[in-house]
Structure formats: C-alpha cells, structure tokens
Amino acid sequence: MKTFKFLTLSLMAVCLSAMSFAQTAEEILAKHVEAIGGEANWKKVNTIRQEATLSVQGMDLNVVIIGIQNKGVRQEFNVMGMNNYTIITPAGGWSFMPVQGQTKPEPMTEEQLKYGKDQLDIQGEVVDYKTKGHKIEKLDNEEVDGVSCFKIKMTRKNGNEIVYFIDPKSYYCIRTTSKVVANGQEVESVVNMSNFQKLPEGITVAFTIENNGVPAPINVNKVVVNGPVDESLFKVQQ
Fold first, then answer.
1. Which residues contact 105 (CB under 8 A, 6 or more apart)?
2. CATH superfamily, with its number, for domain 24-67+116-226
3. CA distance linking residue 182 with residue 164, whole number of Å
4. Rounded to whole angstroms, how far apart are CA atoms 208 and 221?
5. What is the pTM of this model?
6. Percent of the residues in the chain that have a pLDDT greater than 70, as a whole number
7. CA-CA distance, 159 to 156, in Å (whole number)?
8. CA–CA gap between residue 39 and residue 165 (Å, rounded)
9. Neighbour-count burial of 151, counting CB atoms closer than 10 A to its CB (0-12 exposed, 13-18 middle, 19+ buried)
10. How large a percentage of the chain has pLDDT more than 90?
C-alpha cells in the first residue's frame, strides 16, 4: 500500500513538472528577446552597419550591410573592382549586379519586394511583434544539429511567414526558414546562425551566418550600431 502511494505521488510530481515546463509561444519568444538583449535595447537601434567576409572560389569578398530602421537597407560587395549592390526602401527596391552583366540598376520585381521589405525592420520583427501586427504559434520541436529546438512560426502582418528554431538552453535562434524569390522562383531559405556575441549596446547578434542560397558561411567582422548613415546610400544613381 505504501509502495502504491509512493508511486502515485511520484507520477503526480512528474505530471506537474511536465505541465510547469510546458511553455507557450509567447513565453518562448519573450525569453528569446531577453536572451538577445531585451526589447528596450533593441528599440534603441536606429542604424546598423555590418562588415563581413564571404570566401568564394578562393576569393574573399567583403560584404557590407547598412540599414536605417524602416527607411532603407543596402547590401553591397565588390568583385574584381566591380561594386554590386541591392537597395530596398519603403518606396521600392533596386539591384545592380555588374558581375552578372548588368549595366545599370534595375528595379526589383513585386515578388522580390514582397519578401525584401521585411528587412527594413532592423530592430527585428520579434521585438514588440504584437504591436507590429505579427502573429505567432508554437509548432512541434525539431532537431537542429543535435539540439531539440522550440519552433515558433510567425505570420507577419503582410502575410509572409518565418519559422524560428530556438535553442531551449540559450534561447538564441539558431535557424530560420522562410520563403524568398531566387531567379524568379519562390524557394525556401534556410539560415543557420552561430558565434553569438554581445555588443556594447547590450544586444546580441550572430557573427557566423550560413544561408543555403550562399555557397559559403558569412563571417561578420564588425558591427556598428547607431553610427552615422548617409541616406543618399539608398538612392539609385542611374
């Protein structure tokens, strides 16, 4: 009888422990935001400049990404003296890739802009997501490199979806999956993130980024937050 009572109490303890451990999508995302510096610190980010290196076919390409919150994002890299760039603003987007034979900047298609404009929120859509009109839901856990990750699907206000894979120990997001347009086709983008580092501003970002659409990892060398940014960088020179 005592044994039965002990087993009953033990089972109840296990059940209660499992129930207390269960977390909602809101709780998981809140812990993720806290882990990367907290909402207050991220809301102070108005500009960002990232300098990175991408090694392709024996060449080190210098990549620069510059953004102003909700105003513009510019990505550029230099190949054999040719400066290639993309620009996205609320008004539209442009691409200039002389490495691909372009002789002048060309406007992005509506499909490209559908996904590209999500980049304008440099503070991150997870920050104050409800106010921004995004919705989240928790999916079944999925393993990433041996880690059983929380999966949170976010449906942005514009209808675009992204799935965050969050490490249950660090609460860092180590992978995202989403849809993008490449060569006129809608494809799945898988981005793996690692080498997280805390910046002086109190926010934490990944310094190693692997994208299934890029042939090699992108290694970030420098991040400048709230430095001066010339808005003319987001204007196309025809």
1. 87, 94, 95, 96, 236, 237, 238
2. Lipoprotein localisation LolA/LolB/LppX (2.50.20.10)
3. 21
4. 9
5. 0.88
6. 91
7. 5
8. 19
9. buried
10. 74
| 51-70 burial: b if 16+ Cβ within 10 Å, else e | ebebeeeeeebebbbbbbee
Give the pLDDT band of residue 5 (cuts 50, 70, 90): very low
Q: At a CB cut-off of 8 Å and minimum separation 6, what does 40 contact?
A: none
Q: Which residue has the tokens 């190693």?
A: 208
Q: Looking at this protein, which amino acid is placed at residue 91? A: A
Nearest to 230 by CA among 74, 6, 32: 74
Please tell me the predicted confidence (pLDDT) of residue 238. Answer: 65
- CB contact at 8 A, 220 and 208: yes
Residues 48 and 199: their CA atoms lie apart, in Å, by 12
Tokens of 120: 């304008």
Report the alpha-carbon distance of residue 70 to residue 122 in Å, rounded: 7
DSSP string, the chain: -HHHHHHHHHHHHHHHHHHHH---HHHHHHHHHHHTT-HHHHTT--EEEEEEEEEETTEEEEEEEEEETTTEEEEEEEETTEEEEEEEETTEEEEE-GGGT-SS-EEPPHHHHHHHGGGG-TT-TTTTTTTTT-EEEEEEEEEETTEEEEEEEEE-TTS-EEEEEE-TTT--EEEEEEEEEETTEEEEEEEEEEEEEE-TTS-EEEEEEEETTSSS-EEEEEEEES----GGGGS---
Q: Give the phi and the psi of residue 65 in degrees, each rounded to 5.
A: -120, 125
